[in-house]
Amino acid sequence: MSQDVWEARDTTPSQIEAALRELLVRAYSTDDAIVAARVLNVVVIVDAEFKGEVENRLERVGRYHPSRLILCSVRPGRERLDARASMVADGGAMQGSLAVARERVEIEIGPQHLRTLDTIVDPLLVSDLATVVWAPHGHREGVDALQRLAQVVLIDSHDEPDLEVALCRAHDLAEDSYVVDLAWLRSTPWRERVAAAFDPPMLRPHLREISGLTVRHRSDSEAAAMLFCGWLASRLGWRAERLTSRGDEIAGRLRTRRGEVRVRLEPSAELRSPGLGGVTLDMASGAMMSLDRGPGGLQAVRRGRKGPEQRWTVLGASRGEGGILGEGVRQALLRDPTYRPALDAARAMVR
Amino acid sequence: MAISDPQLADEQPNPLTEGLERFPVPPTSLVIFGASGDLSRRKLLPAVYNLAHEGSLPERFNLIGVSRREQSDDGFRQAARESIEQFSRRTPDPQVLDGLLGRLRYVSVPFDDTAAYTRLGETLRGLDEEAGQPLNRAYYLSTAPEFFGVITEQLKEANLHKDPHADVRVVIEKPFGTDLASARALQEVVSSVFRERQVFRIDHYLGKETVQNMMAFRFANFMFEPVWNRNYIDSIQITAAEDLGIGSRAGYYDRAGALRDLVQNHMMQLLTFVCMEPPGSFEADKVRDEKVKVLQAISPPTPEDVARDTVRAQYGAGVAGGEEVPGYLEESDVPSDSTTETYAALRLEVHNWRWAGVPIVLRTGKRLARKVTEIAVSLKPVPHLAFQGEGSVGVQPNQLVLAIQPNEGVSISLGAKIPGARMRIRPVNMEFNYGTTFLSQSPEAYERLITDAMRGEATLFTRNDEVDAQWSIIDPILKAWHTDAAEAPPLHTYRAGSAGPEQADTLLGEGRRWRGL
User: Is residue A89 part of a domain?
Assistant: First the structure.
């Protein structure tokens, strides 16, 4: 791995942009087997104080590194821009294949820069690449300023303590950009497994018979649980209506074409990582199926109308939180047509 | 929010799968024949583990290892653990690995022993009962090819080839036959037991993302199709070069040779992807219909064609990677009088409106200068080059290269002006590289193919008429090469570590040359 670095205090976006070009020329002149990665621009807005923590998260995204990372570190009281640009090339060249070079820019800005952050970031983006914005510490002003440049906004509704506010914010952002919500991605394995459970043609009609839905989730992961409910409601044509809080739980009934579905979101203090902990689907006939986190995958239980209960493990490794962020970056290049309807249904259930 | 009419009619697609990246795979018992063999150890078991790790296996899944060796379930599990730990592309998660190994069973089956298949049937039924439902069955034949027919017939004898309540499929490894007659004989056995829609003939090249991308490249980009024909394309070169020798595979390789090992299957498949017409849709049979039309438009070569349009050779001693290496005949376990070719090159022509007159040359070999698999499409030169007088050097017709391995991507050569006062041109490359343009790592070909076989998705598998057409082209060459008659084309020698025999240069025709390795 090789690295070339440029640094400047009290600099300007055009100087940073020139430095990036110079880094690329220098890289090519010293090693013609270098190719600059050209997949994504990712702009991250962070509190300077917690910059290291976010950098550590980005380090753990594995192979899903953005091509050009622009880290805007907000420090109260700062009036000028300081910047550091670096180019890192992974192995490769020495082993006879191409080395992939990734660029990284860190800019120290003050809070007053957020309102016009687009004018700072614009010259630094690689043209024609998709641009993703992620602001794990809030900084809405900065995100709003960048929306004209970004095609994708990466959010984590889990970070917002108020569920209704979280879902409304996702909705507002989704009006202008494609939203990748890490809370939604935490429900992906559950959505895949529920979809697979009803995929055999003989089981598909049972989707009409669902009469109860229980979603178990970590106490702070109501958003993931609500989005999962919204997904089922939107895919199966249930009427999304407001659910009510009963102590720690959220519960209610949704109308379907043939009847209604009892919905319950149960928080669990025992879950270590954010997201869902289990899902149970009850059928009008008395049959049920459930999935719960367990060692080596999801513990599945299925009970027929009269038949005995069956238990087994649906194999799969946890992606962990590093994996979730990496998946979020990867999803920025894809489009999931089911997220918006699920989000709309989830909002209708909390308003 | 209104109550919409849910798409739940039985014949409708599952409404829950939209937007999901992974397709659900139906509950399946996968039976690997030849489970203690090299392919199973190095590729199949690690692929199954990686599918388990990613949560891509069916929710109910069992794997039954079958081979002639006497072994307990636990013995097979231990061997599988070692294979996975050694060959998996990712470090196994202990809990997922334990969970997967718990799904493994082993049945010792002498392949021609009817009673043993009864035991296999009992094991499969036991797993169905345990699951409370009939599981689909996928028989993966990764044994030596001489057992493919025997196993197929025995499955029928034991009534394991069909199930009224579940889908039964058979996956057959390559080679499907060793010549046209044996391929047809095997097909006769297979089709007497299974319907074609149950049969999945593997060519693992088709599981590679870069091969599948050839269809995307051709049919998702408007700019290429107008020039993708004899009016603009001068020639096509398909190369599958290996820098290594035969290693410990002398037993197999000396019987197969380069033509059977790579040309008859992988390279002919690459040719079909380059030359096929756009299919109406990407349904399996629509794609395969177009591929087979290409193969059927290639005339089986006559003995005269073979003498003129093919070159075979064997590597002699040489230097590879800075080290002296032995010639083929000095490799261990190779008979000293072997006439097996380690290099094959041939010139073919697709006789249809689009490709008539365009030479398509294929070359493959062991112990060549470099490992590379690629397709190079050379366009015709521009009709008039106005810049010649200015001192332009090396101006070449455009070339489009589809790199398959080890580099994966596409490059296009263009003429560009050299900076300066004069209008001088030199070729430059415009490159698309998978590694720099996509974030995702390509899955192993076998992971994709095993999943597709369990789903009954046949697009990336070779249909019977494709295999037949491939052998119809290759069989006359094999016969001519391996005849004892004096008119058999000569077996040339090339130096290990070189670009192959110089005699292959004549295949290209006037004014053309092989791309450098």
Answer: yes
Put simply, the answer to whether B52 touches A339 (Cβ < 8 Å) is no
Interface test with A, best of B3, B7, B14, B16 (most A CBs within 10 A): B16
CA distance A9 to chain B (A): 31
| Same domain for A295 and A229 | yes
Task: Read off the pTM.
Answer: 0.89
Confirm or reject contact between B95 and chain A (CB < 8 A).
Answer: yes
Domain of residue B498: give its range: 206-442+463-508
Interface check B14 vs A, CB under 8 A: yes
Q: Same domain for B151 and B217?
A: no
* Vertex A119: Cα angle to A117 and A120 (nearest 5): 65
Residue from A315, A339, A351 whose CB has the most chain B CBs within 10 Å, to mutate: A315
Domain span including residue A300: 188-350
Which CATH number goes with the domain that contains B416? 3.30.360.10
Split into its structural domains, chain A has a count of 2
Q: Considering its fold, how many domains does chain B have in total?
A: 2
Residue B58 domain flag: yes
Which residue of chain A comes nearest to B165, CA vs CA? Answer: A202
pLDDT digits (tens, 9 = 90+) for A17-50: 999 999 988 888 877 677 788 888 999 999 999 9
Between residues B250 and B477, the one the model is more confident about: B477
What is the tens place of the pLDDT at every residue in B119-174? Answer: 999 999 999 999 988 999 999 999 999 999 999 999 999 999 999 999 999 999 99
The number of helix segments (H) and strand segments (E) in chain B equals: 15, 17
The answer to whether B77 and B45 have CB atoms below 8 angstroms apart is no
Are A112 and A220 found together in one domain? no
Per CB-CB distance under 8 Å, the chain A contacts of B53 are 315-317
- Residues paired with B431 in a beta bridge: B411
Strand partners, A268: A218
* B266 DSSP assignment: I
Residue A55 resides in a domain: yes
Contact B8 A208 (CB under 8 A): yes
Q: Is B158 on the interface with A (CB under 8 A)?
A: no
Phi, psi of A305, deg, nearest 5: -60, -40
| Residue in A113, A88, A102, A94 with CA at minimum distance from that of residue A11 | A113
